[in-house]
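Q: I have 155 residues here and want to know how they pack in 3D. Can you give me a structure?
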Amino acid sequence: MALVQPLPQSVLFCCDHNAVRSPMAEGIMKKFYGTGTYVQSVGVKGDLEIDGFAIAVCQELGVELSRHRARSFEQLEQWGDALSSFDLIVALSPTSREMATELTRVFHLDVEYWPIFDPTAQGETRQAKLDAYRKARDEIVEKLLAHWGPPLEER
């Protein structure tokens, strides 16, 4: 197992629409590591509402996502957060990795790629869909724990 890294000052998670994977990562990171790290999320597009299945599977961990408002990289800047102010950008999809790499090429900024399973087109039944979303959620949890260690309240 790799050594646990110190928590960064600020992290931006990104995915395709900021409706499933990146808001889940944002919410779980805030729950695990508190307010010492500034955490936000964006999508390549900010055109969808937060996904109800993402809300449901995060509630199982005590993470509240229902008030999340999806936004794009472009809206991030419009709403007052400069991309260059983040210490780390974590891309959770190939498209968002491409966008983050392109937008940060002029900054000395780390972009990491955590390929997280996209649950949105999976499952025919409600239970199968929930299982797919849990898989994505659990992949995010595993990455967070591997990167930054156990939640602060467990240390």
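Q: Anything worth noting?
A: The radius of gyration is 15 Å. The longest helix spans residues 126-148.
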